[in-house]
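Hey, I was hoping to borrow your eyes for a little while. No rush at all, and the record is pasted right below.
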Amino acid sequence: MYGMTSAISDALPTDIDIQLTKSLDDALSKEKVITTDEDLSQRLEVLSMLNNLAKEWIREVSMERNLPEITAENVGGLVCTFGSYRLGVYHKGADIDAIVIVPRHITRTDYFATFYNKLKENPSIKNVRAVEEAFVPVIKMIIQGIEIDMLFARLALKEVHEDTDLQQDDLLRNLNPKCVRSLNGCRVTDSILRLVPNRESFKKTLIAIKLWAKRHRVYSNALGYLGGVSWAMLVARVCQLYPNAAPATLIHKFFLIFSKWQWPQPVLLKPSYFMDLGYPVWDPRVNMADRNHVMPIITPVYPQQNSTFNVSHSTLAIIQDEFKTSLDIMGEILTGESSWSKIFQPSKFFTKYRYFLAITVFANCDEELLEWRGLVESRLRFLPTSLEEIECVQRSHLNPDQFVLPYEKSQGRPSSVWFVGLEISKSNGTVVQLDFSTHIRDFCLLVKSRAHAIFKDGMDIQVNHLKRKDLKDYVPDELKKEKAIPNTVGSKIIARLSTEGRHSISELEKESQKSPTSRKRSIEDETDDNVIKKSLSLNEEIFVLGSVESHRSPSSENKSNNLVNTLLSTPKENHSVSTENETKENINVVKESLLLTDAKHSTIESGNSLTSPLSNKCCADDESDENDQKKLRLLHPTVA
């Protein structure tokens, strides 16, 4: 058994699944996210150079510590990779996450002093910058056009050999917490690979999901969305539940399960375990702060941590909206109505909202801009959360993509700009004055309070209010791209959004009267909607996701009000609910799911919402904003 529970389905891929996976391969090849031999060779060359530099530096520091020369030659040291490169899901242009692991006589001070200087002096390495005060301290650099994030960890060992097993928990004994957090990058990545039943299916599915997340603008740990390791753990959990499924099926199940997941129930790949080493672990029974996490995805190694502690209620809602929309698109792909390119097309942002904030940073040169931009980005997630405290602001949507100002706007100065889309509630004909000045001033002061170590003359930050019609002066190319994207969304989401309230039985009956293929898909999705997510219990040590696999039922033409009786039938009477290998416990979980209310399983968006996909039809009439009765007043502070 892989993971917290037994598999939902051990079914092997059908011919249709295999064909869909082949078409997925073609789509990913067109998107150029598949690794090439040339790119692999370049990365191996870069890592080899870093490994030689690190070992040379360790030897030099060892000699300075008056160790005998022969001892200095044999103390060892490692450069290990983790993240997307270690998982095998990187592509051209992706960065490399690495860590230098050293014996006990090498200190963190040495790393950020002598090793940093060694990197700076190397002509092959560009844009070397240290972020020593970060939660996980790092040195960033660019080698041969590849961005490198290099961490540091010091083991309590005299020597660190090539065969050191980093999965041993005892290695963490008596280590600095920063070293433990750095080591967890490698430990988590290796553990994920060990916990998935089929690595190749996992990798291909993860490549597709990461591409989807970037195109749908929900990929950024720093800005309150999900980072690479979080997406990897979500995909790994789906692979555990469907160990023999093809990647095309796994992608569908991914959106199905996590569009219905009852957050903040945590996602775990294995049961938590305790080690008496004194490091804090994620445990909402003990830690009050952990109870405030809205989308916990827990790392599978000690000390267990929540990889998504930056996610807010606002960003969770945005991610869930994308899950639901993509689930409907997957329905079209599985029935042949659409191709894979539809799910990978960028989501709309600039044509989705009417009002925006533009957060722009300036510096005197590109190197200074890298440092300044990184600092502002690390604090940027607090601004949308602050703005949503204003009564009239229903949603504050931060776009994680960075843009460069046109020359006319930047006046030739190096710059980067982020955009926040604002959904403002209707004023019923009254004048609404929105004063963002206090929130923006607090944000700028927060940034400035963290900038004392790197701040230089010429580093500025500006926050401006824009209407949609003003965007043509900032991101004209993006506007053109979004207007070229079709407004259509999944056929079922249109049906769901066309009516307010719950998804009623009558709506399912109407949908079942379509083509035979659509009827089968309706019954299958309705059954899959009963995937159970047991609530997080503060009195239990193990959290369990109870789930139900659905297959197409031969009685798919029955009325939806007979679905409950079908689900409660025995395995022999209804093979669409349970396979021969399912336990009685899973059947009981199904029965339990039927007692849950519809409100617990679905969130219906209003068709009048500016964030609704149906509101795209209104995007073109914002040129009439001149007569808008809303008055927005804003302060434009500059950090000096």
Summary: The CA atoms of residues 35 and 91 lie 5 Å apart. Confidence is low (pLDDT under 50) at residues 490-524, 530-640. The first helix runs from residue 15 to 30. The chain has 22 helices and eleven strands.
